[in-house]
Amino acid sequence: MTVDQLMIIAILVCSMGMFMWGRWRHDMVAGGALLACILTGLVPSAEAFAGFGHPAVVTVACVLVLSYGLQVTGAVDALAQKVLPAGAGQTLSIFSLTALAAILSGFMNNVGALALLMPVAIQIAVKQNLPPGRVLMPLAFGSILGGTTTLIGTPPNLIVSGFRDEAGMGHYGMFDFTPVGLSITLVGILFVGLVGWRLVPARRNAETASFDTGTYLTEVRIQGESKAIGKTLREVEVILEKADAQIVGMVRGEVRVIAPYSRRVLREDDILVIEAEPESLGAALSSMGLKLEEEVLESSNEQDDTDDENAEAGDVKKPDSKKSRSAKRASDTAVKSGRPNGKSGGKSTGKKTGTDSAAEGKSGADAEGDADTKAPAKSDELVIQELVVMPGSPLQGRSATDIELRTRYGINLLAVSRQGRRSIKRLRSTSVQAGDVLLMQGVPEAVSGFAGDYRCVPLATRDIRVPVKGQAVLAVAIFIGAIGVTALGLLPVAVSFSTAVLAYMALRIVPPRAVYDAIDWPVIVLLGALLPVAGAMASTGTADVLATALLDSVAQGNPVVALALVLIVTMTLSDFMNNAATAAVMCPLAISIAAQLGVNPDSYLMAVAIGASCAFLTPIGHQNNTLILGPSGFKFGDYWKLGLPVEIVVVAVSMPVLLWVWPL
Q: Does the N terminus or the C terminus of the chain have fewer Cβ atoms within 10 A?
């Protein structure tokens, strides 16, 4: 072996050891490997960072943004609500959830798919009286398997496609991975969902209870387009029950009813007080076309302000429709109750405009005047954040009206969670207590300013999505269009998906500033850094040397044995190091083995794609395995009890399918 070959092997061995050790993050290890190759002359300085412009890297970043768009619009929540069976038993619930995760993972980032469905899985575990891990591990494994079915399902597939193109054979198509990936996914889901989940250790994790903030009491208004108009209260309750929500009170005009009559017919502008789990809040709203009361008041106030400006300018006459009058009445009621008619939803300085006593002593007219001068500017980049009220907070015993929440901070109180106690008092007049969890809506700076002023602690572990009407359909349509353009070969996948990301930004499906937050930058750095390292492995001839050693010592020239060897070695490496890194290291080796045997390299590249994705033995092999570690209370050695049988199933199914679809 030459000096260059020995150096690249030493760098790769050290990198693998660092990946497995886990002391440093994988992007740091990959960056160190790249710098080592540059300093030793294995990678020319001019090509050091060429990997960051690789189509695979661009595509991975785009998929992450598009997945984020599908999350925040509530598109996946709506799908889960329709697909998952209500009232099913343990096996059917786990099987359905696992299958849904696999379907989603085929077309979006599999980590994103798992994150979306984790709250649903925990709810199923509670309903079925199961340890959380017995639902979460099948869910994680299903999302990993589903990623193998399409080109964009998982980063290793994109990396394999890139190496095929560099070898002069062109990129893989969107569904070239489907025959093999779908086969192992179907068999794997059947095994995991029907039988395998029983192999998961039954660990009751006490930590999960600490994240349970209970149910929210939320006010929602029935508007003209709502499906609830004309239905009885009982009919609406039946529909809401499917979203794990229930009606605990209602408000009609100035009348508040604690236990409303179940046959009462609902009308436009009725306000329902519903109780829902945080994760079910978005589904409860979308199921009946309901609108959060605070958002209704905000939009009506802004419309009144616009109409006033137009009327003063002599341009238009204020509309006098029933809808406008009802919105005006809601606005007037807010002012009469001491709540100023100020704009909200904009950027706030987060600082108080005076002492608390001075704020409380202001008249409605004074407050309204302050709103005109101090109301924050409007912004479309809103967040929905949970805040827990700490003991000793200045907010204790006071309401949103008392502190002039919207006028001074430009944020909305959407809901209150108070475990064990219920109240149908209007949210804006509800006195807050220590330990309450408040659901706030506003720009990040305003919410942070409020939290600091009133000693509230953000609960960053929640991801509560309230769907925006119409955006979910638009997001799905753009995403399907990008996939269709790629599948038809009209545009490369990187170009097609970049166009879709631009459309998401232009249409505000994903606000431009949020695009960069949606990208998992450590993964991008990992890919961009390791691609030149893998290229050095091929250019120095190291891949050929290692391939020859494996063929002579193990496979002994048998292409089928060599194929199984590539699959098993890749799968083993992926259990202990990042799957993208594994694919980047194994692709040159697979191409070299195929060349020496004189057989079809596609078989071996597909084996790398399958092996790199299917990491089920450890919590560090795949991000999805890591995500469920804490909520499930698992130990390091718990994964192999289900993971080993699943890996055996993958090898048993994929080998004959590989030889059939991609013959040697």
A: N
Joined together, the tokens standing for residue 288 give 């009946």
Q: List Cα–Cα distances, 238 to 77, 234, 261, 262, 340, in angstroms.
A: 19, 6, 14, 11, 37
Residue pair 110/122 in contact (Cβ under 8 Å)? The answer is: no
What's the pTM value of the predicted model, to 2 decimals? Answer: 0.56
| 140 pLDDT higher than 60 | yes
Write the burial class of residue 361 (CB in 10 Å: 0-12 exposed, 13-18 middle, 19+ buried). exposed
| Cα 57 to Cα 176: distance, rounded to the nearest angstrom | 19
State the Cα–Cα distance between residues 223 and 344, nearest whole angstrom.
21
Torsion of CA 484, 489, 493, 494, to 10 degrees: -130
Sketch out the chain's domains with CATH numbers.
3-205+487-661 (no CATH), 214-289 (3.30.70.1450), 294-458 (3.30.70.1450)
* Residue 114 pLDDT exceeds 50: yes
Q: How confident is the model at residue 333 (pLDDT cuts 50, 70, 90)?
A: very low
Please calculate the CA angle 66-150-610 and round it to the nearest 5 degrees. 125
Q: Which run of H or E residues covers position 440?
A: strand 437-442
Helix (H) or strand (E) holding 415: strand 412-417
Please, are residues 492 and 180 in contact by the beta-carbon 8 Å criterion? no
Q: Is the pLDDT of residue 654 over 90?
A: yes
The residue written with tokens 């594994």 in the block is: 582
- pLDDT tens-digit readout, 302-317: 555 555 555 555 544 4
Tokens of 370: 């302050």
Closest listed residue to residue 401, CA positions, set 432, 443, 355: 432
What mean pLDDT, rounded, does the chain reach?
A: 75
